[in-house]
Each structure stands twice: as C-alpha cells, then as structure tokens.
Design a protein that fits this description.
The chain is mostly beta strands. It is built from no helices and seven strands. The radius of gyration is 12 Å and the shape is globular. 7% of the residues are buried. The model has no long low-confidence stretch (mean pLDDT 90).
Length: 71
C-alpha cells in the first residue's frame, strides 16, 4: 500500500498456500510504476520488486523469504 506522506510503499504478501507464483506488472502508483513477482517451492519463497517510483519500498517483517530489488 502506498503512503505518500511517508514516501514509501509497504508490501505485505499473503498468498494462498496452493499458489506457487503470482505477479503484478507495471502497476501505476504515485509517480511511476511497480512490478512484483512472487515465487515459491517446498523450501523457499522469493519476491522480486521493480520500483520506478520515487518512494522507498518496505517489506513486512512477516515475510519469511528472499527479496530482490531491481532498478
């Protein structure tokens, strides 16, 4: 969720257990776009974030996986 007053985008993924992947691509947000791809298997889950906005991205502490930030 974007928080323009704080200049940040807060990401808190909550995918259903049966989902192995999901993505949001080129979502217009604030002054740019954001794309987020989630993948997981039996052992790991990862999130790749591409943010072209001027806002910082903050991932929830509840996310127990890797995070890759792309420029």
């Amino acid at each position: 969720r974007p928080d323009a007053a704080k200049g940040e985008i807060f990401v808190q993924p909550q995918l259903p257990k049966g989902w192995e992947s999901a993505s949001l691509e080129n979502v217009k947000l604030l002054d740019g776009t954001i794309s987020i791809t989630f993948t997981r298997d039996d052992k790991t889950q990862c999130m790749c974030i591409k943010n072209t906005t001027s806002a910082a991205v903050r991932v929830s502490d509840s996310w127990k996986g890797c995070v890759h930030m792309e420029e």
